[in-house]
Amino acid sequence: MPNIRYANMSHWKTIPYRAIDNFRDFYYEDKTNTAYYSDWDTILKYQSALGFDGIEIAPWDLADILPLFGSPENFSAFAKDRGVEVIGMFHGAHASHAADHYDEAIRSGREAVDTIVKFGGSYMNTCPTQNYCGAGPLSREEVQQCAKVMNEIGQYATDHGVKIGLHNEFFCAINLPNHRELIESTDPRYVHYCLDTAQIAILGEDILTFYEDYHDRISTFHLKDTASANQPDSVRYSRDPEITDDGTRWFWEPGLGELDLQGLYRLLKKHEFKGWMSIEYDGSPDMLASMALTRYHLDKELRPIYD
Amino acid sequence: MNSDRIAISLDLINRHNQEPNRNRFESKYFWEELYPLLRASGFRSIEIPYEPVWQFGGRSGVPMNRYSIQTKYESAAKYRAMLAERGIDTVTGVTFDPNLFMRNANLDFFFGASGHFAGEALSHAADLGADYFAISPSPYYGRAAHYHPDLEAKRASFTERATELLRGLADKAAAAGVTLVLRNEYWSLFRGEQILPLIDALPDGVKLDVDTASLTIAGIAPAAFISAQQGRIGCVHLTDTDFVDAGETWKSPNPEFPAHRATQVFRDPGTGSVDLPAIVGLLDRLGYQGPIICSARQTRDPFRALLRTRAFLNQLPN
């Protein structure tokens, strides 16, 4: 068994079919590649063929997945039949810094944990609060409120066999000035960390230093590259910066950006990381191509360092 | 008919389903490049499908709601000015469907959220100077039935609440000078002619949307429907299809994607089997002067669809 297993954070947009039984007929209707991106059967086969044995569900997909499959358990069984297991789900802990939102934040977090348990997953990577623009800068008390919510959800998650991992976006109200403060204000027994390599590099952290400092808190990764590290406040704190007006991409497949991912893998070896590494392709124009490029880079450049 | 007066719906751009290169549809540059292409294809006016989802999560590059427009252009007036610079003279109408809010067993949530965002959408339609605001009075039947297995038992109370919501919107629309129009998609609780008792319960100013493909799939001949309802048609969507719903797909949770036989339900205008030239001819003979919109919903290639649509319109007698 390798030390690292690979998964994909699901960034497929809505997949409307479970399986397409009339694939050839469907193709011939308009002779485009639509048939190749329209059913979970095919998507999961791509994952399995490229060695991504896990999938992390996106919460915004639930409204489509659940009616399509009937239940989380049905989706997980369908994926498992194709060699893919559901490892967890992302969660956005909206407004967890706001004391008057405490009950809702806890309810929503617990509900997400319950959903993950139904999928058979073990990870809930959690964005601690919403965008900086409109919410930031946070006071010390608000950061502590956020930590309180994470601890509470984390304890509930731990009791149900799920690890929550703080997952910071470069444009969130938890940002460079209070990112580490939040981590250190949470209880390491209940709250872990999902290291999104590109997000925290754009935020202004050095990924190698960060991993050295917090390796014992890391539960899982979102591995992706960037050519846009250390963005200024004016970008990170702006309104809706994630999708740029001119199509500039923040995120690239491993090896197509500028991050020292080989250095990261040497540290993974040093600290003997064992667990899941999710790859993220947000911003990619072609998920399948990104998946294949990533597999090539993993096999040729990163797995030889530590597997 | 002068086809210059026919609008194109922005629903030809796939905002939701997976396909290569779909990500570009979330950036502002894509849409600003698109508008001149619409004009180059002979369209001076557009219809906007209002979608609250782009308000959540910072994806405001998709110009489908008031938040996105204010984020990128500050105001509807500045957005209209940008459109005009790119050859789009008018926003003919705004559509709204409440499917996003059918996501749990709580009907208070569904009607509360739907009412709130439909109100926003209607105000946005007024700000854009639109002629009509076309609302789907129900979510997908099958999605509602997934969360409410007793949906048929709730039909009367659901209809009552929908009627109440629509009455509020009708008052607001009348005050704003926008025509409220009811859509009757084939997947609706009010599909086909079941829309008629609903509209009968609303003020006279509320009109019907004629969607030619949806009516056809629901088993209603569009020409007969138009003739029978000619006095209360608020807008006409020229949509095309080859789909025959032999397996009650309309009752499934994802009715635009038939589960047992994948197919493109809505075909690019002129490539399906709906007799659109006859319908346009009928509208002409009846003296219909209201909005007409071409929709290439579900197209596999929006730019080919634009040209296909124009090629189809060019074949109509002028």
Descriptive notes:
The complex is a heterodimer of chains A (307) and B (318). Chain A has 12 helices and 9 strands. Chain A has one domain: Divalent-metal-dependent TIM barrel enzymes (TIM Barrel, Alpha-Beta Barrel). In chain A, helix 4 crosses helix 5, helix 5 packs parallel to helix 6 and helix 6 crosses helix 7. With 307 residues, chain A is of the alpha/beta class. Chain B is of the alpha/beta class and 318 residues long. Chain B has one domain: TIM Barrel (Alpha-Beta Barrel), CATH 3.20.20.150. Helix content of chain B is 40%, strand content 13%. Chain B has an 8-stranded parallel β-barrel, surrounded by 4 helices. In chain B, helix 4 runs parallel beside helix 6 and helix 9 packs parallel to helix 10. The termini of chain B are close together. The mean pLDDT of chain B is 96. At the A-B interface, helix 1 and helix 3 of A face helix 1 and helix 5 of B. Chain A: GO terms for molecular function: myo-inosose-2 dehydratase activity. Chain A: It holds the Pfam family AP_endonuc_2. Chain A: InterPro entries: IolE/XylAMocC-like, Xyl_isomerase-like_sf, Xyl_isomerase-like_TIM-brl. Chain A: This is Inosose dehydratase. Chain A: Its EC number is 4.2.1.44. Chain B: This is Inosose dehydratase.
